[in-house]
Protein 1
Amino acid sequence: MTDTRQLDQEYIAGTYGRFPVTLVKGQGALLTDENGKNYIDMGSGIAVNTFGACDAQWVAAVTAQLQTLGHTSNLYYTQPQTRLAEMLCQRTGMQKVFFSNSGAEANECALKVARKWGEEHGGRQVIVTLKNSFHGRTIATLAATGQDVFHQHFGPFPEGFRHVTPGNQAELEAALAQPDVCALLMEPIQGEGGVEPLEGDYMALAEKLCREHHLLLMLDEVQTGNGRTGKLFAYMHYGLQPDVVTTAKGLAGGLPLGATLLGERVAKVLGKGDHGSTFGGNPICAAGACSVLARLDDALLQDVSTKSREIRQALEGCPGIKRVSGMGLMLGVATEHPAAEVAQRCLENGLLVLTAKDKVRLLPPLNIPWELLREGIVILKQNV
Ligand SMILES: *Cc1c(COP(=O)(O)O)cnc(C)c1O
């Protein structure tokens, strides 16, 4: 064991099952470990490094801001934060943004918006979410998360969450008809749950029922947002208009930033003192995000879809591969061998992939060069 791994074992809380590698540097979609071995990165730090490691344009945008003004707190106005909020609203049709530092926090804000809005609209408190979902690790977002495995040890949880089976239309209809419900929260593609997209019919029904019953449609796009699926946000594939969208992971291209986007119906729900964050939307993270968003243009998003098709074509029907799921550069590969073993063999052969449930999960940088993408796919095929 290397020194780093010994120290980790000695001093770091034992919450992570890490891959046996210490990464020391990176450039784009190539990462290097302490022994100088290179890896093709198809994980992007879990969909965070939108343009890969140490991308020159992103580094320039962030360092320029670092050298100008860093943290200020939200007691003052700052230019990068307001510029970013304007970009997000103009590209989504949403009206307001609340900035935080992570996906869980972005969802916490959405839950608070739903509760306050529900209070103002007939005293309704229940938020419906889906089984097999993942919404974060705080106590409230764990309560929202529809997987029992996350609910051991940490109770009691806050009340007011109900879980329905994804894809089951009758169950959704029954749940949303209850008079105490104020909102529906779901991921367009269940990421941690195994890269499982929701069907278009189901999404359309969800929107229709939310309108009929006067409920908030809230989408957790923490992982699917920021170009990952080939659209700026995944909901744009479905042609619907949510009331709340949360995002985080890829937004600032490698810096911690969460955003809760609020549509017309909830734009005025949060008032002074209702919510806050010391770090949220600080100039440095906001400058990183402005630079990322400015580059997520039609050509880049088109490229994401083209790369996605190429990966699918290369993998579908291959020996050892059962099925490919997902959208854009968020793909799940169901393999005959256990996904964790495949990921381990890939790592030994110079390719970093992730897993989600029983799938190998691919989340490469959106600008991964074709050559590295093709090389990575060959390594994956040799190791499934
Ligand atoms: C990762 C993730 C979260 C939690 O984000 P953190 O930044 O780890 O708090 C929430 N929802 C979804 C869909 C995610 O993928």
Note: The radius of gyration is 21 Å.
Protein 2
Amino acid sequence: MSLTDLACKRVQDLIPYQSARRIGGVGRIYLNANESPEGTYNRYPDCQPKELLEAYANYAGVSSDHVIVGRGSDEIIGLICRTFCEPGREQVLITPPTYGMYSIAAETNGIEVVEVPLKDDFSVDIFAIRKAIQQNNIKVIFLCSPNNPLGTIINHNTLEEILVETAGKCIVVVDEAYIEFSIKDTALKFLASNPHLIITRTLSKAFGLAGIRCGFALADTEIVELLLKVIDPYPIPTPVSDIALDAFKEENLKIVQDRVSRIVETRDEFSESCKTLKCIDEVFKSSSNSVLIRFKNSDKVFSEAAKAGFILRDFSKKPNLQNCIRITIGTKQEMDELLNFLEGMQ
Ligand SMILES: *Cc1c(COP(=O)(O)O)cnc(C)c1O
């Protein structure tokens, strides 16, 4: 089966909206897009700003026809659901606890979600995934590495097994929103030999640009073309691509790298210090910019922390995460303040 055959029929047959920019043409006087003749931002942007694709491709070490840019990786997650799943007939598979947007993106598009929970040690349950694939019409598998909220990395042998199992049958997405915090663990090396693999990335976390809404996917060119049939005509505002482009200048990449090192160092120090606290049962090892902590009484910690001005993320109502709170790593000073507070909790 070709990758195009994996897309839903609707998308295979779709002729994308022919925006003025897409039809293109290079000239002296532009009278084709009903734009204003005057103004700073009077022209529609390219659907996929070429320079930005090239900058990201260069940063990621792939060629630019393997890159798609969207309004955050959340938009790309939605695009993947709509491109490959027939509502009511085909499903996406997720491995909870995991990022919440996969099921929202699927369900808001009428696509059912099949859940294959992680094992007790938070590793992916390959046998259960195999069974779920046999029993359903799963078209997309969402894996998150480093996982949110756990901070865990998917084992590469497991990923390889899943890729073998799914070749020609479904798309495997590895969400690498946090990969800069553990770049050695990227699944990029699997891309060339696995055309059904999509890696999603974002500028929202390590790059510190959550406010501009800019995310990427790395995939086979055939997948890129399919996703481009479904994407909105102008997803990337001109100021966004300008700011994003700036982020890939060498001196700015260096700033990001230094910040990542600092956050990783702060995370490890904070995690170590937490292990000695009376109010804490377990600190999970993280490869991300947050740590998941199991408290003795998370409700109490959560509400007392809020009163003291610390806004944390409660995961205690999620399956397998009783008494767990996720804490994003802030500055060293912020984490010291939180530690001080936690030391006072009994
Ligand atoms: C934050 C996050 C995203 C969303 O990224 P945007 O590019 O801001 O849309 C995607 N996946 C995971 C796992 C995240 O934690």
Note: The chain has a mean pLDDT of 96.
Protein 3
Amino acid sequence: MANLDVFSDNIKSIQPYKVQSSSGLIKLDAMEMPYRLPEEMREALGTILSMGNLHRYPNSKSSSLIAKIKSTFQLPEQLDIMMGNGSDELIQMILMATAKSGAKVMSPVPSFVMYKQTAEILGMTFVGVDLESDLSLDEAKFLSAIEEHQPAVIFLAYPNNPTGLLLDKGFVEKVLEKSSGLVVLDEAYTAYASDNTVDLLERFDNAVLIRTLSKIGLAGIRLGYLVANPVICEQLEKVRMPYNINRLTQATARFMLDQMSYFNDCVRKVLAEKEQLFNWLSEQPGMTVLPSETNFLLLKVADADRVFQALRDEHKILVKNLHNTHPVLENTLRITIGTEMENRKLRQALSQIVQV
Ligand SMILES: *Cc1c(COP(=O)(O)O)cnc(C)c1O
């Protein structure tokens, strides 16, 4: 028998983050872009990747990629940028660097599950402030929780996953003012949102922005970036593995950032599809759909477990069932926007299932 005593009680008590199996299913569960890269782009990329010096370590800082990200996304000159193996790794680096004994991590809940998961793995105390039953955040309650708990790190997903809602910008500003710790603004869905927080980053030293290329069509390369004041990045750099971004990812991202018009077109198509699906869902009896500033919709039905299973087992469509994850998500499903055909199949499936 392996001796499990070597593992901390903390690790032994943590539930693993499970990715559900999707083989053979239409994948509407993980907020991926539904379109594969066009063939010409894949071929051009193949040529570029074939020239890479894979016997050499990658550029440690991803310097040329960072320069390209700064110009492509028009990020303020005076701020520093760091790259992560997905924004998941950036969340991990932020928490590793702040995991002092007794340090608290706070965010609204439900929100992105890796905030709590990573905090607890590192032995930090996670304080979740529950959303209201309409999925809004009680701002006064959140501000007084900051006062009470003095968190080392606050995470605000802007917009939020899994609700799809965008916080009021004035409120984000109040959180930055009130907090003596870091405030991480997670803009994973910024391409789909009506606003961003870059202006707040220029005004508040404790603001840290994280973004990802995953939701605009490059989930497979695992690349996220962090933008913050240089003195914060200087500390975070110490926990970053020297070669965390491999050569294939760096080269792919550099190539892809020259094709932003292609990605912007994809985002526009997804937004148009979302509007159609939203309108259709709003008219269906027995379902309630929430407006969303992301590439997914949150849908409330009478019996989420039944709808989820029927979608998966009878119609080969995989969505995310959020029932039993938090009281405010009772009987809700999170549905990523797919291609026109996938969304049509989803509508057909839902009308059949709900009729039964
Ligand atoms: C998907 C998601 C991430 C993680 O993105 P990766 O870059 O793929 O690790 C981070 N935050 C939120 C809110 C997300 O929904």
Note: The longest strand covers residues 104-109.
Protein 4
Amino acid sequence: MWLHFLVPLILLTTWTVTCHVIDETAGKMADYSGYTLHRFQVDTTSNTMEKLESYDMELDQTTQTARLLIDIWAEPSKQNPHADVLVAPEFLQKFKSLLTGAELSTLKMIEGDIQSQINAERRAMIHNSVRRRRKRALRSWHEFDTNAYHSYDEMVEFMRLLSEQKPDMVEMVKVATSSEGRSIYGVKIHPPGISPPEKPSIIVDAGVHAREWIAPAVGLFMIKKIVSEYGKTAEVTANLQKFDWYIMPQVNPDGYEYSRTNDRLWRKTRSKNVTVNRWCVGADANRNWGYRWGEAGANRTPCSNIYMGSHPYSEPEIKGLKEFFTWQITNPMVYISLHSYGQLLLSPWGYTNERTENYQDQQNAAKEAALAIKNTTGVSYSYGTISEMMYPASGTSIDFMQHRGVPYIYGVELRPTDNPNSFAFNLPPSYIRATGDEMMAALNAIGTHAVKIKRL
Ligand SMILES: *[C@@H]1O[C@H](CO)[C@@H](O)[C@H](O)[C@H]1NC(C)=O
Ligand SMILES: *[C@@H]1O[C@H](CO)[C@@H](O)[C@H](O)[C@H]1NC(C)=O
Ligand SMILES: [Zn+2]
């Protein structure tokens, strides 16, 4: 928060894309001491969420710094009609005054000091990275530890090794270049063979929102799982024979690295546009797509966490993804965008509460996915359209893909669910495996459904 835009100017000169060691001094990290996480039942007749959102960032013109006042972590949905909201200490009184009487009567604090959660996670990561550094560099993709949160460079190194050591199954693809100049990669996975014919595709992206660390971890988990289990487990084998898989595990590497080194709660990209605003950096990459950009549920304030950007595709990450999806993927059948948290499978539309023409089929596939998840780990995921389950959001990738005619589309909110005492964005790495297993099961179920309905 305080350091959002002061630090990067200094850092960028010395701290380039080659850095992947976590800084152990941690002196420059944004500090959320005194911030508390609250939950309340949302009164459906109120416009409380919109009101709260409008206060999210305070800009101090004299010190030229911005400070986060309020941050919505979990939006209310039909199944869970409550909100999780992070509140700065000085904003607590004002926050309470914005709730209706009914909402206030259900208000409870679910985390007393978010900074201690962040510190605990950081200590564990430093421990881990010291341990990893003592070991030699990765020599084989098998050695890549999917049960840990990795730097962007480590993710790329894994994909590079995999494509070099499994060239008959894995091709590394470059999809975009970020604002800070990082190359954004993904992998295309197909059954063993040199240049097999193009098939319908399953597309997965993750990391759109920087702080949702479980999402890229699950993306990487799935890459490793598909390659290792091809020919061993029936469902993985069948779905790889039917589909080309494109997995882009980290599409917002600037934001991700920033969330590792400067501000654990960073969500946006790291683009700078001094014409628009000199102090506030980045846009919400999932409000920046061009289809119905800037309609319901978009924010025009550059400091906001859900700022839609100065124009459609203003973010080079999103422009690159759009070009890649449009020109490189000929027959997209399934599109999944991984986020956290809340355990939801969200389908289009986001910009309107009208139903898509293939609404029922999308819901049927989501139901199969939720059953497969339940069968795999016993965990419950809910499903529905974005506007049905929550508030409208426009400029999202799933609306773009729906407009493009992709039949099966889900924005996934991974674990945890918004239960009391949840870890929110700080899900310990010990949960990656189960979250990855259940997502793999969900994707296989959606693939199987598509094969049946579309006669692939
Ligand atoms: C910066 O914002 C201005 C004003 O909205 C816009 O015209 C311009 O294209 C933006 N620049 C970039 C690089 O996005
Ligand atoms: C549940 O899981 C078992 C074992 O993993 C599998 O054989 C079965 O087909 C699954 N059932 C469903 C409905 O997914
Ligand atoms: Zn997200």
Note: Residues 36-112 form one domain.
